[in-house]
Amino acid sequence: QVQLVESGGGLVQPGGSLRLSCEASVSIFSINVMGWYRQAPGKQRELVATITSGGSLYYGDSVKGRFTVSRDNAKNTVYLQMTSLKPEDTAVYYCTPCGPKSKWAPSPTAETMGALTCHFWGQGMQVTVSS
Prior knowledge:
Layout: E1 4-7, E2 10-12, E3 18-24, E4 33-39, E5 46-52, E6 57-59, E7 67-72, E8 77-82, E9 91-100, E10 111-113, E11 116-118, E12 125-129
Parallel strand pairs: 2-12
Antiparallel strand pairs: 1-3, 3-8, 4-5, 4-9, 5-6, 7-8, 9-11, 9-12, 10-11
């Protein structure tokens, strides 16, 4: 299991920005993919963005052009820079280490992403976009 320290959530007005941070207890270079998910009340989890150990990026359609995912390997930290925030971005955000099924012990809250399993080990961060 990887220990995660997530920070940066909060209340922001529509059109504003926030940066979420997620510091891992292990070298994130050793983690295949770091994913950002979110879950709004009454809705299913949504994959927001991912960054691979090689630096490849993915963004969900709903955040493309507004959110930027990045990583600082020296600090074992990944970031999600969110701009032009909308009320519909309101959710709890989670950073998730993702790897092959055999990499870590199974967890009941894990999410499958293709051939990888993403684990929700952090506490999550509430992001509320409201005027």
